[in-house]
Amino acid sequence: RTITSLDTLADGFLDLATALPIPPSWPPYSTAIILCTVLSRLVLTVPFSIWAKRRQWRAEEAVMPIMRSMAPKVARSVSEEMTRERVHGTKEQIQAIHSKRVKEILTKQRKLLFAEHRCQPAVTMLISPVTQLPIFVGLSILFSRLSQAPTPFDSESFFTLSTLTHADPTRALPIALGFITLANVESSRWFMTDTQLKREEQVQQWKEQRIARGETVLEPQKIVKSSLRLVSVGRIVVASMVPGSVVLYWVTSAAFGLVQTWMLDYWELRRKR
Asked: What domain range includes position 80?
């Protein structure tokens, strides 16, 4: 049934490509792949990305100011409580107990505020990949199926692709895919405000101070960025081995994602200014 459904979708795509009012000088199937990629991203992924961005803004505007104003009060309250309890120990031990209690209270309050304002970070971070992955995998399988002989893809070339059924012999599109993916990772700093850059420097100094004291500091953002940089290289390798139609879809999707990221970041920059 799965193969039959794939064949039905494949036949539908071929019919769509021939029915579209594409200029005769344009390659019909390559153009249809690009158009389907753009339309699927516009309809099925952009709305969720905007929704996730609005959740992020609620967390920054509604939750974080409350947490910043609450932190000194909680610290004083915990200090008074420890004084009443007559907690004894060395200065370092008392500071450790105090920090642990303050962190537990603030963590609990932060979770409550996130739930109240419907902006839990885990959901915000997962919504975009969760909504994009099924479409990405589904269309990749569809175009891979369409590249199997016999297929009209075999008679069409595009850019450096001699045919849509074979891998790119020049590796130009796979390399472009890697660079686009890397640009999507690195461009997050391009639209940061002066306040954000200053805060990032302060956080980095705070982390260095903790490391100097012998504390272990986890940096999830750096771990994620390093992983995505490796993914950029891995995508070049994988894209060099798949059919040209799949590579064309991946490059178009990555380019759309990069432009989408730029637009959302620019929107946030203008809003903050």
From this structure: 1-272
